[in-house]
Amino acid sequence: MKKIVVLLVTLGLLGACSKLTQDNYNQVKAGMTYDEVTHILGKATHCEEAIGTKSCRWGDDAKNIKITFLADRATVFSNHGIQ
Fold first, then answer.
1. Which of 74, 7, 9, 6 lies closest to 44 in space, CA to CA?
2. 28 by DSSP, 3-state: which?
3. Which of 19, 24, 59, 81 is deepest in the core (most CB within 10 A)?
4. Strand-pair partners of 50
5. What is the separation, in whole angstroms, between the first and last Cα of the chain?
6. How far is Cα 29 from Cα 74, in angstroms, rounded to an integer?
7. Number of DSSP helices (H) and strands (E) in the chain, helices first
8. Other beta carbons within 10 Å of 61
9. What are 9-39's pLDDT values in tens digits?
């Protein structure tokens, strides 16, 4: 049973990483809502909010997509290590 749980957790993590692709990054457009972006990239790894802005990162330091939302609309985005 323990092996099954470990396998499921590992597959879940691999599935989340598979969304960090150049194709998915190219689908993100200025003006998209946070919900529209998460439909493409999945749940963000980390977000910070401050006075009408929300900055989110998908992935880790080695491979990530970063998007800043202003009034829930994507305004600035970048990627690192995505191929």
1. 74
2. coil
3. 59
4. 53
5. 36
6. 7
7. 3, 4
8. 8
9. 444 444 455 899 999 999 999 999 999 999 9
Q: Dump pLDDT digits (tens) for 50-81.
A: 999 999 999 999 999 999 999 999 999 999 99
CA distance 39 to 21: 14
CATH number reported for the structural domain that contains residue 53 in this entry: 3.30.1450.10
Start-end of H helices in the chain: 2-17, 22-27, 34-41
Q: Which range of residues forms the domain containing residue 56?
A: 2-80
What is the number of other CB atoms lying within 10 angstroms of the CB of residue 37?
Answer: 23
Take residue 69 and report the two structure tokens written for it.
């939302």
Total structural domains within the chain:
1
Q: From CA 35, how far away is CA 54, in angstroms rounded?
A: 13
The number of CA neighbours under 13 Å toward the Cβ of 39 is 8
